[in-house]
Design goal:
Elements lengths: L3 E5 L2 E5 L4 E2 L5 E8 L2 E10 L5 E11 L2 E5 L4 E2 L5 E8 L2 E10 L5 E11 L2 E5 L4 E2 L5 E8 L2 E10 L5 E11 L2 E5 L4 E2 L5 E8 L2 E10 L5 E11 L2 E5 L4 E2 L5 E8 L2 E10 L5 E11 L2 E5 L4 E2 L5 E8 L2 E10 L5 E11 L2 E5 L4 E2 L5 E8 L2 E10 L5 E11 L2 E5 L4 E2 L5 E8 L2 E10 L5 E11 L2 E5 L4 E2 L5 E8 L2 E10 L5 E3 L4 E3 L5 E4 L3 E4 L2 E3 L2 E5 L14 E7 L6 H11 L1 E13 L3 E3 L5 E6 L8 E6 L5 E3 L3 E3 L4 E6 L4 E7 L35 E2 L5 E2 L7 E2 L5 E2 L7 H22 L1
Antiparallel strand pairs: 1-2, 3-4, 4-5, 5-6, 6-7, 6-8, 7-9, 8-9, 9-10, 10-11, 11-12, 11-13, 13-14, 14-15, 15-16, 16-17, 16-18, 17-19, 18-19, 19-20, 20-21, 21-22, 21-23, 22-24, 23-24, 24-25, 25-26, 26-27, 26-28, 28-29, 29-30, 30-31, 31-32, 31-33, 33-34, 34-35, 35-36, 36-37, 36-38, 38-39, ...
Length: about 725
């Protein structure tokens, strides 16, 4: 009645009022106290051996630890509880045999289950649930996650930690968890370093989500094999080791974009366009482009600075050199270059290859270099092909972005052009700065500045020296065989130092002059007008329509000659002012093809009469020449009936003025052109500069003819006529 004490052996039990001690020593009550342990329930039984059991669920209070004991559970005399399930606080431990030691530690024989709130942990044999609900074991399983290690601890809040390195297995993902790492109740892992497969992720706080994705707070480092990637906050390492972020850094390479992906093999790709920064080199990487673990970039197009390189496979090496597999295209500002396989774009935008194509121009050589400004050079000799034009470019030569070539020597076909600066325009025309030399076969031409060599080798210039022959004139041409074609007013220097004035479209070859007409002074000195020698040109017009039938008949009756051609021959100053020669001159004309021997030239005077010019016909050269001091209308006639002894010809009647006279100019249609002097210098046309002396010096004299000079010329001409007549006889 009231509380009592039951002592059995070493076991002392406090028996409450209503408790019973049976004859066999068994105690039954609704609550018993033994030592520090209080067991209560509907019916608590203490067997003689001191073991306590309950019918239905009971409660075991030891110190501050309260354990719910299921039916069949046992409290041993030492306070140890054994059952198939115990509940302490919010923790339920169940298993084949669950043991709660007097210190409150719970263990299981075989695997057991620890339920705390919504967290269920599988506890292996040897695992312990401490009185505060902490679980310690060498392995725990919670949901899909297995954590194993030397000592795995599950805190009452469900967080799992390991002492030393542990392993977290979630599905197919295995994570090595360092000392201090935590597996949260939802399976999330946090640590300063985790290892999954060949991938190690470290940072201030590394998080592995239950789906196996790894993120870092702040910048982290991902080590896969020999590849190290700096992972920014927000970046993710997927269970298969794939990294996704908006920026990753590997080695000296930073890759950024909307979504940058690093595959487990270390290859980096971007979704949309990305940027690859290596040292001072920045490359724009298109979607589908790849950055390899060694920093090599492969894509079908990369952009670096002002340079865009595209092709089937474009490769950017770690040193910044860009190459293409197959032909590629390099776009630099307005310049587009086709880059062959093996060609390289260096980090500064320079292109190096054995052949490049830009526009219509192909440049090939041992090493062709395209500078960032678009200028192309070659090491050693190279070849420049533009359309049908092929130019050999020497070392140091340059092809500009517009296709213009500059060098000190170029070779095109059989033609070599050399000079201080030789320029080949995109249309194939070649010019030189300063004097240059054009060599075609055995023909050498000295070409002045401003002269042009066409793609076919034809030279157009105002002055040239061809095999020692000086020629000048507005837009004269020299063909590859050395033939010179001169415009009206062109001049040719002879070997003896004379200057020949030639008619329009005259041609000169290496053996002499062949032209429509040639004028040269008959005596020493140079013709001039108002002191200007090189503005005088020979003008020849067909005048056959001015010859009437009566005049034809008159010439036939007088000289037995039949007119074949008629010419109006004049000298023009500056192509517009008609002048007369200031001395006796020799005029040479080209014979028509049907003209042979017995051809003569007659001058038709103002009164309509004819004067026999006693022309000298050179049928082998195809020319006929005569001497005169007055130019007007001349006829070419075939002498069909050689008459008897003619009267002694009179020399041309030259005016004998008392005072110096000037040529009276008359205007003709023409074009004013600049003049090239014999020394190659341009001379301005001025008024009354003087008369050229025999040595070419200008004198302050406007006299066209002098009486004494005229008289001497008449005597010389008469003597020449007499001698010629005697020779003819």
């Amino acid at each position: 009645s009231g509380n009592g004490t039951v002592q059995t052996g070493d076991t002392t039990v406090t028996l409450p009022d209503g408790g019973t001690v049976k004859p066999d020593g068994t105690i039954t009550a609704e609550k018993v106290v033994t030592g520090d342990t209080t067991v209560s329930g509907d019916e608590v039984t203490v067997t003689p051996d001191g073991n306590i059991t309950v019918s239905g669920n009971g409660t075991v209070q030891t110190g501050e630890t309260t354990v719910t004991l299921p039916e069949g559970g046992t409290v041993k005399p030492d306070g140890t509880i054994t059952a198939d399930k115990v509940v302490t606080g919010g923790t339920t431990v169940s298993g084949d045999e669950v043991t709660v030691a007097p210190d409150g530690n719970i263990t299981v024989s075989g695997n057991g289950t620890v339920q705390t709130g919504e967290t269920t942990v599988t506890l292996p044999e040897g695992g312990t649930v401490k009185p505060d609900g902490t679980i310690t074991a060498d392995k725990v399983v919670r949901g899909e996650t297995t954590v194993s290690g030397d000592e795995v601890t599950v805190a009452p809040d469900g967080n799992i930690t390991v002492s030393g390195n542990g392993t977290v297995q979630t599905g197919d993902t295995t994570v090595t968890l360092p000392d201090g790492g935590t597996v949260k109740p939802d399976g999330t892992i946090t640590a300063e370093k985790v290892v999954t497969g060949d991938t190690t992720v470290s940072g201030d706080e590394v998080t592995v989500t239950p789906d196996g994705n790894i993120t870092v707070s702040g910048n982290g480092t991902v080590q896969t094999g020999e590849t190290t990637v700096t992972l920014p906050e927000g970046g993710t390492v997927k269970p298969d080791g794939t990294i996704t972020a908006d920026k990753v850094v590997t080695g000296g390479t930073t890759v950024s974009g909307d979504e940058v992906t690093v595959a487990p093999d270390g290859n980096i790709t971007v979704s949309g366009n990305g940027t690859v920064q290596t040292g001072e080199t920045t490359v724009t990487l298109p979607e589908g482009g790849t950055v390899k673990p060694d920093g090599t970039i492969t894509a079908d197009k990369v952009v670096r600075g002002e340079t865009t390189v595209s092709g089937d496979e474009v490769t950017v090496a770690p040193d910044g050199n860009i190459t293409v597999s197959g032909n590629g295209t390099v776009q630099n500002n307005d310049t587009t270059v086709t880059l062959p396989e093996g060609g390289t774009v260096t980090p500064d935008g320079t292109i190096i290859a054995d052949k490049v194509v830009t526009g219509e121009t192909t440049v090939s050589g041992d090493e062709v270099t395209v500078a960032p400004d678009g200028n192309i050079t070659v090491s050693g000799n190279g070849t420049v092909q533009t359309g049908d034009t092929t130019v050999t470019l020497p070392d140091g030569g340059t092809v500009k972005p517009d296709g213009t070539i500059t060098a000190d020597k170029v070779v095109t076909g059989e033609t070599t052009v050399s000079g201080d600066e030789v320029t080949v325009a995109p249309n194939g025309n070649i010019t030189v700065s300063g004097n240059g030399t054009v060599q075609t076969g055995e023909t050498a031409v000295t070409l002045p500045e401003g002269g042009i060599v066409s793609s076919t080798g034809i030279i157009t210039t105002e002055k040239a020296i061809v095999a020692g022959t000086n020629a000048s004139g507005n837009a004269l041409t020299v063909t590859p065989d050395g033939t010179i074609t001169l415009p009206m007013g062109g001049m040719v220097g002879t070997a003896d130092g004379r200057d020949l004035i030639v008619s329009e479209n005259a041609t000169v070859d290496l053996t002499g002059v062949h032209s429509m007409g040639i004028v040269e002074p008959e005596e020493a000195g140079e013709m001039s007008y108002s002191g200007h020698r090189y503005d005088i040109s020979l003008h020849i017009e067909n005048a056959s329509d001015e010859i009437t039938e009566s005049k034809t008949e008159e010439l036939k009756n007088m000289f037995g000659a039949e007119i074949t051609n008629a010419y109006d021959i004049t000298l023009l100053y500056n192509h517009t002012i008609e002048i007369q020669p200031d001395r006796t001159i020799r005029v040479t004309l080209v014979l028509p093809k049907n003209s042979k021997e017995n051809t003569n030239i007659f001058r038709m005077e103002k009164d309509g009469s004819f004067t026999d010019m006693h022309a000298v016909c050179n049928t082998s050269a195809g020319t006929i020449s005569f001497v005169t001091s007055h130019l007007s209308l001349y006829v070419l006639a075939k002498v069909t009936d050689v008459p008897g002894e003619p009267e002694e010809p009179q020399p041309p009647q030259l005016p004998v003025p008392k005072d110096p006279v000037y040529a009276e100019p008359s205007r003709k249609n023409g074009v004013n052109v600049p003049t090239i002097a014999a020394n190659g210098n341009a001379e301005e046309v001025g008024a009354g500069a003087g008369v050229a002396s025999e040595n070419g010096e200008m004198t302050e004299n406007h006299v066209i003819g002098h009486p004494m000079a005229i008289l001497m010329a008449m005597i010389a001409l008469a003597a020449a006529v007499i001698i010629r007549r005697k020779r003819q006889k």
